[in-house]
Amino acid sequence: MAKPASSPRQSPRVVQLRKGATVEMVRLTCPDASQALKIAESFGTAVIDSDGIRDLHERLIIETADALGDGLGDKAMQIHLQRIVGAYVGSAHGAGQFYSRAVTEARDATAKAANDARDEDLDGPVGYDSAAQRKREFAADMGIQAHSLRMAAEGAVAAYAQVIGETWKPFDRPVEQPGTSLSRKAAEAQISAFD
């Protein structure tokens, strides 16, 4: 018996994109200048020159673009700066996420230490801080680092807008599907000939 001819079905191809970090994501996770100042004053750490970091990185990117100007065309410059700025933003976002986790751990440890019935959370031996205190100090250090990287990223983003003439956006690249190689696609096309 003959098999009725069936039309080959094309499944809709869904391309997933790997979303890059944005400046807004950095601003949500990293402390701003006023919070960084509050952290520095509360923990006795160095006060960061936020504007200086931002301005320095803005100048750095602009000077880099000027130096490369004769060797790169407009599109090549845009791609190059896209990658550089993306690295700054990605680094700041990663630091901001790490800072957020450190703050959560510090808050949890501090809440546990406030419970008088818990022996393991009491102050350490003489000359040593409690675990909760160490976690708070670690979170403060991570906050200052995240803020510094935020300022560097904001400077790089500002420079991108100045050099390229448009707002920087992260490059969303397709997620690579393991196992979907060219030979597999070719095999699927060949086998469909038998349908």
Summarize the structure.
The chain is mainly α and about 200 residues long. The protein contains 6 helices and 2 strands; from the N terminus they run E-H-H-H-H-H-E-H.
Task: Quickly list its features.
195 residues, mainly alpha, two-stranded antiparallel sheet, 6 helices, 62% helix, plasmid
Describe what this molecule looks like in 3D.
The chain is mainly α. The chain has a domain at 21-113 and 129-169. Helices cover 62% and strands 2% of the residues. It contains 6 helices and 2 strands; from the N terminus they run βαααααβα. The protein has helices at residues 23-29, 33-43, 50-68, 74-113, 131-164, 182-191; strands at 17-18, 173-174. The chain has a two-stranded antiparallel ribbon. Helix 2 (33-43) packs antiparallel against helix 5, helix 3 packs parallel to helix 5 and helix 4 runs antiparallel to helix 5 (131-164). The longest helix has 40 residues, at 74-113. The model has no long low-confidence stretch (mean pLDDT 82).
Oligomer state equals: single chain
What's the N-to-C terminus distance?
Answer: 15 Å
Amount of beta strand:
under 5%
Q: Which stretches are poorly predicted, pLDDT < 50 over at least 5 residues?
A: none
Order of helices and strands: EHHHHHEH
Strand arrangement across the biggest beta sheet: 1-2
Structural class: mainly alpha
Work out the helix count. Answer: 6
Rg (C-alpha, Å)? 26 Å
Estimate the global geometry from the Cα principal axes.
Answer: flat
Annotation, overall tally of beta strands: 2
| Main sheet summary | 2 strands, antiparallel
The share of residues in helices is 55-70%
Mean pLDDT: 82
